[in-house]
Fold Phage portal protein, lambda family.
Amino acid sequence: MPVRITRIGPAPSRRVARATGTRQWADDGWNYAGPRAVGGASIEAAGGRRGGATIHHAPSAMLAGAQATMWKARHAYFNNGYIRRALDAIVTACCGAGPMTTPQHPDATVRAALSAHFGPWGLRCDADGGTDLAGLIAAILRDALRDGDVFVHLIPVQDGRRLLLRIVPSEAVDFAESRALPNGGQIVAGVEFDANGTRVAYWVREPDPSASFDSYRPARRILATDLLHVREILSAGQVRGLSRLAAALVRAGELDQLQDAALVGVKVSAMHLGVIVDPAGAASDPFDGPIAHAEPGTMIRLPGGLDVRWNAPAQVSQTAAFIASEIRAIATALGVPSFIVSGDLSEANFSSLRAGLQAFRAEIERLFYTMLVPQLLRPIWERWVTLSFLAGDLDDLGAPALDDLLPAEFLPPAQPWIDPKADIAAIREAMAAGIMSRRQAVASQGWNIEALDAEIAADRERERALGIGPFPIPANGQPAAEAPEITSDESPADDQEPET
């Protein structure tokens, strides 16, 4: 980590020095606050060492080790199958095919119109044109968990009439950009704070897409209202994020070495290696004359006094059990059930799968509602509504107030069931007992109740118009009766209503 010499006047900002590893001038002389002072080696994934290390100031320790941890986390994600599977499982559970945004305007017509406008925009919101809103959300969450944090630039185009989104990687907001400002504010690891400690801007070094190698470009100041900072909050006073993989990187690297050693041991033990021993040292050369090929049933005669000893390397006992234990430790550190990481369901049963998935779903809900919604989904929605409202794109809604258009509900994708019949029965019983509404039941499956009811009504109307229904719906767990078969010459009369 580079050490920067900074001259600060009276009452210097010690927070900047602690966070960035600078030397600051105080009344008593030079006070060094380098990486060792802020505990850079306390993040084991950054230094790769174990022991009795302590973390005295979590935000400083996180800043000191965040960048090195990010580099190692990226390498592990692209090269370690366990790490990649665990992280992808979290992203898939949180994002799926895309979270659902449900407007909360009191008028149902306005809600439907907002959804009708928002959906097409989400298909073309990527500034780079590589994916849609669902794909961007998944990529943002993956980068935030793997790298520690990620940024999203809200770009107004067409004179502010349209909003585009661009992902800004973590290293673009320079960790080394730290200094005190004349107005009483300060910049810490590329994040600018005002005199009150409020985030007001980010200093971004944008890469040059035409450059074949990294080059220095001056940082550009982007307002915090235009650059979303997505990270998992781990400590009070946290400035930048820390990779979720930090707790598992060291163990994952050691597990790789263990598996490599075990594989080499198996290869060595499979080698056909023999040693000819001559205790007296007087035997003739056994390789004089023709050499018989080793085939089944071949009898080979050695000169007197010679013996052959075959290699028998010691096998690592209980290697498979130990590797399974290490995989469970990695899965625990990442908050993922071990069978998802290992792919081994040989010892799983219904109870263990259900218990593991329940804890995993609780963790997914926490990430979704405490990280994705406040840091990403709600700001994107509110910015899109505001720009669309000011541009006049929502004039067909009948001139509602902007404040009434901003509230929205964000629903995570439905989680897969282990036993769909048992889970549906539990939902029905909860609704019958009055402890769950139908809206809650529909939301738990990742659907909007208005959209679902409209689709059901449209299906019934279509069936009624075609004379092919209504199809009987099973109730109380009873099997459904077969629907009557209607041939082309057996259609109901036009004036006859279908039976309901």
In short: Residues 1-41, 483-500 have pLDDT under 50 and may be disordered. The longest strand covers residues 149-157.
